[in-house]
Predict the structure of GNAT family N-acetyltransferase.
Amino acid sequence: MIEIRGTGPAEFTERLDTVMGIYTAAMNPPADQIAGRRAIMRGHGANPAFRCLFAAPPDGRAVAFAYGFHGQAGQWWHDVVYRALRERSGVAVADAWLGDSLELAEIHVHPDYQGKGIGRALVHALCEGRPERSAVLSTHDQPTAARHLYRALGFTDLLTRFVFPGGHEHYAIAGTPLPLP
Ligand SMILES: CC(C)(COP(=O)(O)OP(=O)(O)OC[C@H]1O[C@@H](n2cnc3c(N)ncnc32)[C@H](O)[C@@H]1OP(=O)(O)O)[C@@H](O)C(=O)NCCC(=O)NCCS
């Protein structure tokens, strides 16, 4: 039995070691990127309406986490994606998706616990009760479990083969109206 528990920014910051342990196991990032990613995540905790969920078996040791916050102008991801969507689809579309959005920033399940419904449960729980009219995210534009999960939850592609400034990998930007069906 997996229990999902919600936390705010203070506990999230206290548990950054746990967060990074799960992230590293799930994503296997290059070692030289881990410190930078940790700093970015720490910064995310300061964004408005930040909420993080941890999933843990009965022993209490977290095996998955997901977090999101209210997206708004001035945030790096929001501004980059807003500009790209405006260029591609016009200001009305960019405003409709990003004008009042929950940014689903991270979701990671330890490999030993993947494929058991935890990721799906975390996205549902994170979106539940949110006041925003949409949820948006980016994910590698490849046939991954994440791509499959988001499509199954109703997310549609807003941009594909998108390259973030300074990066080289292809991402998909996806969104769904809230509440989830
Ligand atoms: C993506 C991730 C969060 C999904 O969480 P999860 O707990 O493994 O997924 P779930 O068990 O809830 O499964 C959700 C759906 O994905 C499918 N799925 C799970 N693992 C899969 C895999 N390896 N390949 C294809 N589909 C997969 C499930 O079958 C399920 O779909 P279904 O309901 O149609 O059968 C998790 O696999 C993960 O942490 N991956 C590595 C890190 C990552 O990519 N994070 C997301 C970055 S945007």
Observations:
- The chain has one domain: 3-177.
